[in-house]
Amino acid sequence: MTTTFPRRALLAAGAALAAPAPLRAQGTAMRLLVIGGGFGGASAASFARRTYPEVQVTLVEPQPRFVTCPYGNLLLGGERQIGQITHSYDGLRARGVEVIHDRAAGIDAPTKRVRLAGGAVLAYDRLILSPGIAIRWGAIEGYDEAAAQQMPHAWIPADGSQTLLLRRQLEAMPDGGVVGFAIPGNPFRCPPGPYERISMVAHYLKRHKPRSKILALDAKEGFSKQGLFQDGWRALYGDMIEWVPGNRDGRVVKVDVAERVLETEFGTRHKVDVANVIPPQSAASIAAASGLVNDTGWVPVNTRTFEARAAAGVHVIGDANIPGPMPKSGYVANTTAKQAVAAAVALHRGQTPPEPVYFNTCYSHVGENYGISVVGIFRPNADGTAIAEVPNSGGVSPRGDLPEQRRLEAIHADSWYDSITRSMFG
C-alpha cells in the first residue's frame, strides 16, 4: 500500500537531508574530476563547488550546451520551445568549475588519469563518472543509427536534434494518421517517460489532428503510475490511445523503416505514419570500455559511496549505474551526486563518508494543467549490500476526479524543473 505525502513536507525533508554536511578542509586541495554534464554530473560539480570551495573541480562534457530529457516531452506537446530546455555551462564556470568541452575517451583508474579525445590527459584524486546511457543498436532488428534518422528515439537529447525531428514528423503527419511507440523492457532511463510522451503527443494531436490515433506497443506488462496515466488518457483523450502490453504481443522486435512498420514478437506488423522507437539501453560506452559494467550492461556500485565495484576512486552516478529499486531519474541523479561528492571528499581525507539517504520525486504531465507524481525515500540496508525503499515512505498522487490536485501538481512539476536546473547550472 502506498501513502500520499503532502508535497511541501516531502520537499522540506528532502532539502534538509539530501545535501550531506560539509567536511573540514585538511591538507592540499583535492582534484575532483567530473565526466558528464547532465543531471548527475552538473549536480555533482555545482554541489562540490558550493559545499567544498577548497576542492578543485573540473567538468568534462562534449556538448557546449545541455538539452534536458525532462521537459523534452512538453516540446512535443507544443508547451515548450527548445530554448526553454537548453542550458549553458557559464553558470558553473562562474562558480569556479573548470569546464572542458571534450569527450572522455579512456579511464586509467590505477594511475588516476583520464584521456580525452582531443589528446589531453587529466589527473584526478577522485572521479565522478556520470556518462548517461547508450542505445543498444541492433537490439531491435533493423534499428540502427541510420534508422533513428527516420524513426527517432529522442531518448538521448544531446543537441536536441532527435526531439526536434520527432516534433517535425508529428507536424507533417496528416490528420487521421497513426503515431506508433515502441517501449522497452526494464531497466531504462526515466520509467514514466514514454507514458508522459504518449500523453504530450496526444495533447498535441487533440488540438491539431484530432482524428489521429496513438498505438503504444510495450515490452512490459505494466508501467510506472499506470493507473494515473490511464485515468488521464480516458478523461482527456477518449479512445485516441491504445496501449498494448507485452503479454498481448506488445514487444517490438523488428522495424521496417522503408515501410514504416513496427513488428512484434509473434509477427504482427503495425504500419504507422510516425514511429518513436525507444530501444533497450545500457550504460554509456566509456563505462563499458573502462571495464566497469557487468553482464547487465550497467555499473554495479557501492551503495554508500557510489564507487564502481570494479574501480576504486571512480564514483558512478546518474543513469549508468545499478541503483537497486531507485529509478533512473533526474531527481535520483541529483541526490546521489551529492552523496557521491561527499563520500569522495571524505574518503580522500581518510574520513568515513556520511550516512546516505536518497530521494526521488518524479513528476509527469498528462495534459494541460494536469500533473501526477510519485515519490520515494531510499537508504542502504544494514550491511550496505543493497538499497531499499524506506518502509511506508513511497507515495503517488491520489486517483479520482481531482482537477485542482492535477493543476497544483503541474505547477509543482514546473517549479521542480526550474529549481533543479538553477541548482545545477546557476
Automatic annotation (TrEMBL):
Domain Sulfide dehydrogenase [flavocytochrome c] flavoprotein chain central: 163-279
Domain Flavocytochrome c sulphide dehydrogenase flavin-binding, first and last residues per copy: 354-425
Residues in FAD/NAD(P)-binding domain copies: 31-143
Keywords, alphabetical: FAD, Flavoprotein, Signal
SUPFAM superfamilies: FAD/NAD(P)-binding domain, FAD/NAD-linked reductases, dimerisation (C-terminal) domain
Keyword RNA-binding listed: no
Signal peptide: 1-18
Coiled-coil ranges from the UniProt annotation: none
Top-rank taxon, per record: Bacteria
InterPro entries per record: FAD/NAD-bd_sf, FAD/NAD-binding_dom, FAD/NAD-linked_Rdtase_dimer_sf, FCSD_central, FlavoCytC_S_DH_flav-bd, FlavoCytC_S_DH_flav-bd_sf, SQRD
This protein's name: FAD-dependent oxidoreductase
